[in-house]
Amino acid sequence: QPITTDMATLTREVKKFAMDKKMEIETLKVREEYRREFLGNVSHELKTPLFTVQGYLLTLLDGAMNDKNIRKKYLERAEKGVERLIFIVQDLDMISKLESGDLNLNLSKFNIVELVQNVFDLLEMKAEEKNILLSFDRKYLRPIRVFGDQEKIQQVLVNLIVNSIKYGKVNGSTEVGIESLTDNKIIVRIKDDGEGIEPQYIPRLFERFFRVDKSGARAEGGSGLGLSIVKHIIEAHDEKIYIESEFGKGSEFSFTIEKAE
Ligand code: ADP
């Protein structure tokens, strides 16, 4: 750095230095706030299932254990609570890796049609609970090869289809469609005829822990992290995700992905 003798330049540089420091401090403050909020959210999310499990176990110890039927029922419920905790911790693990940029994409060419069908098989039972029909346009019987991280794209499909079931109506349907967007991109659409989302919430959907209906969503057993994981994965691929939704009618989430050939 050259030594500055000119007073005006010196003043300017001192001011700039002070501004830079101020901005640095602001950034640190925002980060600190973010961390505090994150920790608060995490402990809040963990508390509900933990107390549920504890409640069932305490009741069992308190004598409910002696009744064979109650014992089975309460143990099953406690197990559900533990399952829920495992899902939350897995989501947290995923989000922390995605946000720290620690997660390398394992890129390969794969058939997205087959992947969608595998995800349907995986979620068939969950859909049956609400008698929701999972459908896939028949014209996609031929393979469509894409380029991406297969495991992560599977996670995207699972999260979006699980949501379409969770927020879908009984006897409703979820339809997956794939279309060519440009010569080298395709778009995958996941469309449901469920409850839909009010427009004012749409910009916040991808925020961590954001839920439209806190109590309702909690009853459905999500962590509020599903969509933010989806967004991170799609952005890590340099691709885009879109939402279209009409309150009371249904929603459509779609994302782009690169064609392999
Ligand atoms: P959650 O674990 O709560 O499902 P997500 O991040 O996956 O968390 O979704 C955030 C919120 O977005 C949900 O709580 C719900 O309010 C809303 N949402 C997501 N998908 C849909 C959908 N297909 N239809 C209606 N609302 C949805």
Characterise this structure.
It catalyses: ATP + protein L-histidine = ADP + protein N-phospho-L-histidine. Residues 41-261 form the Histidine kinase domain. GO terms for molecular function: phosphoprotein phosphatase activity; phosphorelay sensor kinase activity. Its EC number is 2.7.13.3. The chain is an alpha+beta fold and 261 residues long. It has helices spanning 7-61, 68-99, 112-129, 150-166, 214-219, 226-236, and strands at residues 107-111, 133-136, 145-149, 173-182, 185-192, 241-246, 250-259. Strands 1, 2, 3, 4, 5, 6 and 7 form a seven-stranded mixed sheet that branches. Helix 3 (112-129) packs parallel to helix 4 (150-166). The longest helix has 55 residues, at 7-61. The mean pLDDT is 91. Residues 159, 163-164, 166-167, 192, 194-197, 205, 210-213, 217, 222-228, 251 line the site of adenosine-5'-diphosphate (ADP).
